[in-house]
Every structure is written in structure tokens, then in C-alpha cells.
Amino acid sequence: MAVIHHENLGLFVLQTAKMDYVIHLSETGRLTHVYWGDRLPYPSDYPPPPQNWVLASQHANWPDMLAELPTLGGLQEVSPLLRTTFADGTRDLRLVCHSYKIAENELSFELKDEFYNLSVTARYQVYPDCNLFKRRLELTNTGPEIIKIEDALSGGAPLSVDRGDNFRLTHLSGAWAAETIVEQTALTGGRKVIEGRQNLTGHAHNPFIAIDVNATENDGEVWFAALEWSGNWRLFVEQIRSPFKLTRLGGGLNDFEFGWQLESGEQFETPWLALGYSSNGFGEMSRNLHRYQRRYVLPENFRQELRPVLYNSWEAVTFNVNEAEQLALAEKAAKLGSEVFVVDDGWFGERHHDRAGLGDWQPNAGKFPNGLNPLIQKVNELGMQFGLWFEPEMVNPDSDLYRAHPDWVYHFPNRPRTESRNQLILNLAKPAVEEFIFNMLDDMLARHNITYVKWDYNRIISEAGWNDAPAGRDREFWVRHVQALYRILDKLRERHPKVLFEGCASGGGRADLGALHHYDHIWTSDNTDPLDRLAIQHGYSLAYAPKTMYCWVTETNHNKANFSLRYRFHSSFMGSLGVGSSLNHFSEAELEEAAKLVAEYKEFRHVVQHGDFYRLTPLGRLEGVLAVQYLSEDRREAVVLAYGYRKHFWQNSTRLQLRDLLPEGIYRVEGELWNESGQHLSGQILMSRGILPKLSQGIDSAVVRLTLETPPA
Ligand code: GLA
Question: What's the whole-model pTM score?
Fold first, then answer.
């Protein structure tokens, strides 16, 4: 049972394999948070619901501090989840719970304002095998007058109360070409907000935060929050001393420039916020999140499928795509073992550079005189699927689409329209724009054998205006844009279930749990330098599953290092493999080597993509050696990838203690190792003494594979 109701105690427990989250419902309809941590054996272990206790007139009541759904109303100290304005100007919101429902893994509370016609459902869904739950709020206007929503977060929760001073915040920050870099900082009093407010998830910060107490990769308590949303978001953590130190985290939509008008009978749903707990450090937290994505988040039609090895020509030729040259590349890509051939930007309209063409989604007649079908057919004959790049939400002013519909972009009437990469953003809140994008893609997919769509989004917003919006609704586009995006993707998937969708925003600008409900995977970063990429991929792994992370082998060399082809491939083995190299410049020997590496990856990709993931070297510290392990769910197969990473000359290697093998099973060990290759060793010794990857000086890498030879007796 994932939801347990102890009626005599007034307690509701969201229970997973290892976690309890406990809420108290009082006789007066008040919901209070009671406990969030390790699963406890007896209900009598749960702390008592907080007593009504005012410490000083400068502080809120203790039960209000621990409210499960704090709203702007009454004595305020913690961040409210909801702020509303009623028709008469009242901004004080008092919700009382009058009923609840339990259905399998779901719990919901029905609340109503004491006076005004607003009802709120607080909904929880529990994922017992992932040690997490998600929650959201659903607001309904049950009266005749408009209610304005000023702020609507999805959820928030105190961590266990009064645990001393050692809380630390971990999150993912970065920039274009440097996404998902791990940041850690000690928490002090006050409120810290990590947010995105540029109409996309963003490169600068990712909607995932973790709070820990002295945790390491394998030990210690970690709580996390991750938002399932690809637009403006905010996650917060706050620490209040009143009188016990209270540490709370939460998040949801960003209230920056936000506003929503709830008319009579209308409903508003916040995105889901995933909340989880691990008492076995960051490693288990990541595995819980990865499992959640593999089992429940990713779109169902490809959820169980391995991601294909793809070739994408962007880095090889940029905008210079044409039938003959793409075909020449496709022939080589097929020899490598690519399973999908993706034509990137440059195939449509007058798209010879980034100054024109976005919006005109018809093949350029000079580049593809007979359309795309002849190329697609040949690609298919070569044994590969065909994929195509789109940036559906964008338009270049130099395009037929913009000339026909200049009012379709975000803008303010008497202001310039600031271009970025020479493009403007289409306003998806407008039904005509949503319809145009859906019809365009639906038609393209119907007329071509395209089974892979790369969906890009290449700028941040400016002049965020919707001046011809229905009265009072001009700030709703922040949410409506993302709702329309998700709707389009869902409809396309329904109509074209054989198409895989890759989510991209100048690399990893749209990597979040919301995107992963609608895209099958993410283009992790435009930075394909194999060394830089390790840091990006390492950070990405904190929250997101390796399967969702595409990694290409290219010639990029920002580090001016002597990268071997082997190293480049090994760096890309960390997730789903792609190749973006200029294959025309490859020698026969290089093509042969690359083909062997692709074949090697295919042998173990099921472990990388569907196995459990372990960081074998410390989180966020990229010095010496970076190593990761993948373990099949039945624990019979493992893959270890190790990279020499800015090593000192005397530091040849690092012994790696493997994780979670069957202690009494005997594994055959093969690969690039100083000692153990070819040996048959017990899981126990592989976990306690470990293995020593063979890494020579400088940039080097090693792949090690373990296969269970003899299962435990
Ligand atoms: C973005 C993407 C790249 C490529 C280019 C094409 O930068 O992240 O992979 O598709 O656009 O313009």
C-alpha cells in the first residue's frame, strides 16, 4: 500500500520501499506536515502533530510553519504555495480540507476557502519503487466572479525539523555549452531561489535541487525536488529559526510576470513537483530518479526501447545540406552502424544561414530538387531510419511565415522586436499558432517516412507581450506556451507513434522531467568536446537517466587535447550514442575503428540505457579519474567507464570499488585493466578491493565489462 490512512491518528502516510511522508488532518480540516524521511516500522514512531504554539509576536504559529499547503493568509512566515486575489480585492486565502480520497497510489485532499468560491485539490501520486512521490494543486472557481491567481506553486515540504546546522544545497547550474554543472553550498538562514524565467527550462539553472546532511555518494540523507515543467519555474529552499530551525523546500511555476484569470467554472492545474528522499546518499537519489524516468516518465511507446545509434550532420556541414552530400554521409554513417540518419538545420526554405527561413518548413528546392523523399528512401535502403530537425516555435523575420503573420510573435506594439540568432518566438498561446505548428508537422510526418524529429528552441524571450490576448489574460502565455507545446507533441505522438522525439534547446536548455514526459530524450549540450562533456554528463546524471542523454562523437576540441577516436567514443558511451563527425574526412582505418567502437557500444548499451547507474568517483569533483558503473537490473552484467581527467603525472589510476554486485556471484572481468582482466572474481572482492582501470598518462579511458559466470549458490 503506497497510501496508508491511520484514521485514529488522523495521519496519512505516503509510503515507498524506503521512505515515509506523513500528513496530519485535524478535526478542523487543517493539513499539517508531520514527517519526511526513512520508512518507519510503527505509526507510533511518527512525531505528534505540532501543537498550537506561538513563540513570540514576531513569528507565525508553529502549526502554520508546518502547514502542508500554506497559503497567503493569516500569520505568514514560510513561503505560501498559493496567492490569489478575489473579486472584492481580498488577498487572504484560507483553505479548509473537507474530504479526501485514496485510490491505489494516489491521495487527494479537497479543500475550500472558508468564504470565497475557490476549491483546491491537493493531489499526490506515490511511486513506491522509486522512493518518490509527486504532487500538484488543482484550483477550481466554483462561483460567478473571476479569481486572479497571482502565484501557484505545486508543493513544498519541511525536511525533518531541528536537525542542526549542516544542511547543504546541491543544484545544477551552467551556461550554453556548459550545462548541468554541479554546484554545492552550505545553507544559511533565509530563502534561496533557483529559477528559470526565460520561457524555457534554461541553460543557467535546471529545475532540480537536493538538500543533504553530510551526504556522500553512498551515505547520508538527501531530499530532492524536481519540477515537471519546461517553462518558467522556481525552486526554493528556506531556513527559518522559529524557534526550531525549519528547513523547507518546494517549487513550481515562477510567479515572475505571471498572472492567471480563473473564470467561473474554470480549473487551473499546476505542474507536478516530484519529491523524494534517500538515506543512501546522492547515488541512490539519482538511481531513484532514473528509475522513475525509465519506468513512468518517458513516453510509453518507446519507454522500453533502446535508443538508436544516430548520425547527425550538423557539426560536419552546418547549413550546407543537400541531397548528394547528405547521401554520401549517409553511406558512411550506415557503414559505421548508425541506425538513424538525422538531417539537421538548413534543409528548408531559404535557410542557407541562420538569418532566414525559420518558419518556412518546406524543403529547399535547390538543395532537394525532388523533395526529401528520394534521400529518405536511400537512407532507408541503407538500413537506417530517417530523422529531421525542426525549430517549430521560432521564426526568422526574413521568412514567408513572418511576412504573412507578423503578429504571431511575442512583442509589444511600440517597442522593437529584439532578435536573437536573428529570430523571434512564436506565441503558442495563440490558437492559430498552435494549429499551424501541429498541422505543419502532422503533414510533414504524413508525407515522409520520418521516424525521428529533433525539436529545437534556440533563444530566450524578450518583449514578452501578448497585447491582443483576451481581456485580463495577457500574462498567461508563460503557461499557455508550454501547455500548447506539450499538447502538440502529445497529438503528434498519437498520430505518428513510430516517431521518436528529441528535445533540444541550443543543447540542453530544455532538460527537465516535464520535457521527458513528452520527448524521448534530450540533446545534452552543443559542447561536444569529449573532456568538457564529461563534466556536463556527470552533472546531468545527478537528476536524469543516461538513456535520455544523447552524446555525440565529433571533432570538437575546445581543450586542444590530443583526443583519440577511442576516447571520444568512450566519452559518448556514457549515455545514448550519436556520431556527428565529418565522416568525409575519415580515413578507411578511422571508419573501421569507429565501426568497431559502435559495435562494442551496441553489445552493452542495454546495460547503459536500462541498467542502474553509479558514480564511482565523488560527485562534483572532476580531478584524477572520473568513473561510472552501469548494472543490469538482474545484476548479471555491469559496465564500467573510466576516464583519466586532468591527472597529475604520478597518478596513474584509481582503484574503483564496484557497487551492488551479487557478493557471492562470480563475474568474468574483461577490459582495460592493469591486473584483473580475464579473471573470474566474486562480486564481494570486486566491491571491496575493486578494480584498477588501465589509464596511462594524460587523456586516456578504459571500458570494463563484467558478466556473471556463476550465480550465488
Ligand atoms: C542548436 C542545436 C544544434 C543544432 C543547431 C542548428 O544549436 O543545439 O544541435 O541543431 O541548433 O541550428
Answer: 0.98
